[in-house]
Amino acid sequence: MSSFPYRKGVLHAEAVPLPAIADAVGTPTYVYSTAALTQAFRAVTEAFSDARPLVCYSVKANSNLAILRLFAGLGGGFDIVSGGELARVRHAGGEAAKTVFAGVGKTQEEMEAALAAGILLFNVESAEELEALDAVGRRLGRRAPFALRVNPEVDPRTHRYIATGLKTSKFGVPFEEAVDLYARSKKLKGVRAAGLDCHIGSQLTQSSPLRAALGKVAGLYQELKAQKHALEYLDVGGGLGITYSDETPPSVEEYARVVLNATKDTGARLVLEPGRSLVGNAGVLLTRVLYRKQTPAKHFTVVDAGMNDLLRPALYEAHHAFVPLLKRRGKAVEVDVVGPVCESTDVLAKARPLVLPQAGELYAFLSAGAYGMSMASNYNSRPRPAEVLVDGEAWRVVRERERTEDLWRGERA
Q1: Residue 243 burial by Cβ neighbours in a 10 Å radius (0-12, 13-18, 19+)
Q2: Backbone angle region of 351, left / alpha / beta, with phi > 0 → left and psi within -120 to 50 → alpha
Q3: In CATH, what number does 34-277 get?
Q4: Of residues 1, 297, 342, 413, which has the active-site annotation?
Q5: Which of 154, 274, 260, 159 minimizes the C-alpha distance to 212?
Q6: pLDDT (tens digit, 9 = 90+) per residue, 347-383?
Q7: Nearest-angstrom CA–CA distance, 124 and 117
Q8: 371's torsion region: left (phi>0), alpha (psi -120 to 50) or beta?
Q9: For 181-253, where are the E strands, in sequence order?
Q10: What is the DSSP string of 144-188?
Q11: In terms of C-beta density within 10 A (0-12 exposed, 13-18 middle, 19 or more buried), how is residue 202 classed?
Q12: What's domain 6-32+280-408's architecture?
């Protein structure tokens, strides 16, 4: 059941009518559902219940403190890609000991902070990074636990910008170099091999690429164990897709079957890194119509949300359903929904059949919980949106809307 249903023609978040939030907080505003977030997390833990993996939420998908605190309270760990994300996790009550640190460009300062905090695992992505981590470990008098992220050269069949498992990707080390790098790590005094990692991409809508990649990675894990590497963790990444328009991604249950079947003979403790699948359909972006504009070629609807608030359509040609908060009847026309940002790419919904929106009407971009607010910027000197968390009949602001004076905080004229 959707956490954003229409009730008597009014779009709700759980039991809260969304127009009430828009009127109280203004627009644009992101709204998240506690029920949807909780249900998505529990669906993963239940599907993998026999394996009892460590579920590390991918913070980059949505880093709001309230969401991090919710997942920490449900027993979740975290997948981070920066020192700032680690600081957020800890501030929200998350544990460094249940956190994995990924990313190709970790600085030594970030490594030091993470190692001092007791990070579970560094997912190392290059030979030089392994050497840098070794230097950090020796400097702190510790052996930094690491998993090598290997690139299995499997096409994830997703958008080219979010495919990470191909040999042309900046992520991971070539599969054929992994054995030698693990062997080299035995001679280093500041690191210890604790696992193996793989992540082939985001918004995966088919099982076969994951099955192929994990088959290779599971075999490598067993080979490394046979070579007396004391590995404990097999990090299978994340990337499970959601439905934005007409996609039919694998269910959580199917995803679990694929992962468990591929890794059942490894004896490893699994680490999962779900992000989009936990938060994507748990959030919407509220916006208000500003103007209508008709040219000889098409109808435009100008809204107060722009590509600085929701970058995915401009960056990935992504689709987000665009629906009115108050249901309308009438003849649909083809409309381009555009924002106020001074860029031709600020098109949030292209060629949509809509009953022509009226100035002042409220709408929502659906499935906006992942990579919405976390990618928001101040481009065109626009304050970033507010964020609201709904829980049943209650709701609260979990990030205040930026004020104009926030735009130049830290600057000097």
Answers
A1: middle
A2: left
A3: 3.20.20.10
A4: 342
A5: 154
A6: 999 999 999 999 999 999 999 999 999 999 999 999 9
A7: 18
A8: left
A9: 191-197, 233-235
A10: EEEEEEEE------S-GGGB-SSTTSSSSEEGGGHHHHHHHHTT-
A11: buried
A12: Beta Barrel (2.40)
Give the amino acid at 276.
Answer: R
pLDDT tens digits, residue range 318-328? 999 999 999 99
Residues 170, 126: contact at Cβ < 8 Å?
Answer: no
Is there a contact between 279 and 40 (Cβ–Cβ < 8 Å)? yes
pLDDT at 161 over 70: no
Q: What's the token pair of residue 366?
A: 């659906």
Known active-site residue 56 = no
Q: Going by DSSP bridges, is the β-strand pair 386-391/29-33 parallel, antiparallel, or unpaired?
A: parallel
Sequence ranges of the domains in the chain: 6-32+280-408, 34-277
Quick one: which H or E segment has residue 355?
A: strand 347-355
Residue 383 token pair: 């304050």
> Residue 343 burial (CB < 10 Å; 0-12/13-18/19+)?
middle
Question: 261 is written with which tokens?
Answer: 């079947």
Q: What is the mean pLDDT of residues 294-298?
A: 90
Side chain identity, residue 158: T
